[in-house]
Please model this.
Amino acid sequence: MHLEAGFSFTFAFMEITHEKACLCALNKIFGFEPKIALALISHLGSAAGVFELKAKEVDQMLGPHSKYRGCISGGSVEQAHAELESLSGRGIRFCGWGEDSYPPLLKECEDAPVGLYVRSGSDPGELWKRRRFIAVVGTRDISPYGREWCERLVRRLSEVPMKDRPVIVSGLALGTDICAHRTALSCGLPTIAVMATGPDDIYPSRHRGAAAEICRSEGSALVTDYPPGTAPLAIHFLRRNRIIAGLSEATVLIESKIKGGGMMTARLADSYNREVFALPGRIDDLRSQGCNYLIRNKTAVSISSVDDFLKELGISRRTGSAGRETDEQKLKRLYAGTAEEDRISMMSRVLLAIRNDKGITVEEVAAAVGLEYSTTAQIINLLETDGLIITDLLQRCFINLNYRP
Model:
C-alpha cells in the first residue's frame, strides 16, 4: 500500500547536492553492509570520493571478486539523484551520513546506515535536537497484560516535565509497536516509526491511518534506510531493528519470546551500551520468556512499577512533585522509636548495596557493607518481613519495587 493518497503536507525543499546523491547511492549499494561504505567514506574523506575511484583502485580496496565491484559507477549516482528529485516532490527527505539532519545517537553505532529516508511534517534537522528517545518494542501477539503496561508506561512518560518528555520509537508492526505509537499520539508525545519497507510503502497496510497521523504530528516521522520499492521481507525487519535500538537512549521490551524480534532489538541496544528495560511476566507464558531471560541475566532492568521505571531513567515523575525520600529518611520514619540510629544507618547501607547490585547475595551484601554475616542476615530478614526487599531461594536480594508504606 503506497503513501500517495492521504499524505498531503508541506515540506521544505531538499537541496540535492552531488555529495548527497553519492551518499544515497552508497546507502543502496551497501545497505546490508554499511560498515564497508562508512570505512570508504572515512578513508577517502567523502562519499563522492568513492565514485571517483578507478576500477583498479576499487579492486585494491574491495578485492577483484567483490560483489560490489560493478556497482560503484557514475550510473549509480545518476539514478540516486533522479530518485531524490522524485522523493523530494513527495515530501520525503534523505538524510546522509555526516549531514546535520542525521541522528547523532544513531551515528554512534558502528553499523549505522549511510543514510535515512525521512517522511515527516517537521524538518529532519529538528527531529533529533534536544529530545530523549525511548524505544518501546515487543511481540506482535501482545497480551492484555502487555497492552495495559505498554499504554501505562507511555502515558506516564507524557506526564513528566516538558524537558524530560521523550520521543517514542517503535517499528509500526502489529501488537506492541502500534500500541506504543497510538498511545504516544493520543497523549501528545512525538513518535518515530522505523519501517522495514521503502519510504513509499506502509506495512501492514492496516496501519496506514496511523502512519498518516505520525507524519502530521509535530516532531514525529516515518523513517527507513530502505530505498523506494523495497518489499517487507522477513530479513528486512531484522535489519530495521538496529535502527530502532540505535536511535534510542533506552529500549523497553514489553513482551517477547526467546527468539522474538523484540529480543534482537533489546540485545542490540545492550551492545550499543544503551539502557534496556523489560516487563517481567509469568514463567509459563511464552510471550514473557524473553523478558524474564534478560532480567535474569541482568541484561535488562526489571519494570515493577512506573515510578521506579522513571527513576531509573532519571526522569521526574511530574511537574511540581515532591522529591523522593532517601532510604535513610524512609527507615527513620518506619522505625521511629523502635530502632537505634546506628541500626538504621546499617539498614540504610544494606538497602543501598541491594539497590546498586540487583540480585546480590546475603554474603555479598555483608562484604559490601563491612558487617558480620549474621548481622547482615538479621537486617535482611527484617527488611524482607516489612516488605522493603524480597529474596529468592538462592538468597539473592532485590528491592521490592511494589513496596508501598
Observations:
- The chain has a mean pLDDT of 89.
- The CA atoms of residues 101 and 125 lie 4 Å apart.
- The two ends are 53 Å apart (CA to CA).
- DSSP finds 18 helices and twelve strands in the chain.
